[in-house]
Amino acid sequence: MGSSLKRLYAIYGASGFGRGVMPLAREQLIAENIQNYELVFIDDAECQSIVNGHKVYSFEAFLELDAADKYVAIAIANNRVREKLVQKINLYNLKHWSVIAPTLISMDEVQIGEGAILCNYVHFTSNIKVGKFFHANYFSYVAHDCIIGDYVTFAPGVKCNGNIHIEDHAYIGTGAVIKQGTPDKPLIIGKGAIIGMGAVVTKSVPAGVTVVGNPARILEKK
């Protein structure tokens, strides 16, 4: 009987970002010619039972559904929450799933870790290494010789130029521009740093700080 069970594919998060990812997921499953599946949302706060034509389950309810396999893509922009959800998904032996828009451009020698969400018109040039659970919102690019850690988030329109190293859990705001480093001295965005919307980053950013403005400066806590 096992083969008659559907595969379940889920987008974790039915808020704005998740609703933007869902059509990409739908398109991807059709393009891959996956048969006998259902595509749903998981959301622990959502009151609606259907969002944009897809059923919404709490995580607990999703666990109870019968399925041949269960795949989850986490569409939560907060990278700390994303990491907690990854741990939860691993605990229950669900499978991670990457959602990649058909308009993605990826050139030579680009490695991307599991659980990525890459939205429309994201562009990777060449010789790039990206960690796990990376989010790149639409119209973002990553140029040559960049290394990006785990749980990094790009809001829309991020311009990440060549020879940049971005450490784990960094968040890069909408329209931020990161100046190119050099092969012998890459520009580094430290672990957990936050780059504000529209910031122009001209030099390395220490771990854990927030920078804003043009040129980007550390936002002092009041």
TrEMBL record:
InterPro entries: AcTrfase_PglD-like, PglD_N, Trans_hexapeptide_repeat, Trimer_LpxA-like_sf. This is Acetyltransferase. Residues 10-89 form the PglD N-terminal domain. It comes from Acinetobacter terrestris. Pfam families: PglD_N. SUPFAM superfamilies: Trimeric LpxA-like enzymes. PANTHER family: ACETYLTRANSFERASE, UDP-N-ACETYLBACILLOSAMINE N-ACETYLTRANSFERASE. Belongs to the transferase hexapeptide repeat family. NCBIfam families: NeuD_NnaD.
